[in-house]
């Protein structure tokens, strides 16, 4: 097998999973903190 492609694939998967974890963490933080004042999350928020 071509190890270069495997390395690239593994790196891509790691980056994607890291990104999704960061996005999920942001979502959970917003849900937990900004429930009383929802206008923070929006076009003219943060």
Q: What topology emerges from the helices and strands here?
A:
Blueprint: H1 3-33
The number of distinct structural domains comes to: 1
Class by SSE composition: mainly alpha
Major sheet description: none
Mean pLDDT rating: 72
By DSSP, the count of extended strands is 0
Core attributes:
46 residues, mainly alpha
What does this structure look like?
The protein is an all-alpha fold and 46 residues long. The protein has one helix spanning 3-33. The chain has one domain. The protein contains one helix and no strands. The model has no long low-confidence stretch (mean pLDDT 72). It is rod-shaped, with a radius of gyration of 17 Å. The longest helix has 31 residues, at 3-33.
Structure summarized in a few sentences:
This protein is mainly α. The protein has one helix spanning 3-33.
């Amino acid at each position: 097998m071509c190890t270069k492609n495997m390395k690239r694939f593994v790196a891509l998967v790691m980056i994607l999973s890291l990104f999704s974890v960061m996005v999920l963490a942001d979502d959970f933080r917003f849900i937990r903190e900004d429930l009383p004042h929802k206008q923070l999350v929006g076009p003219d928020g943060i």
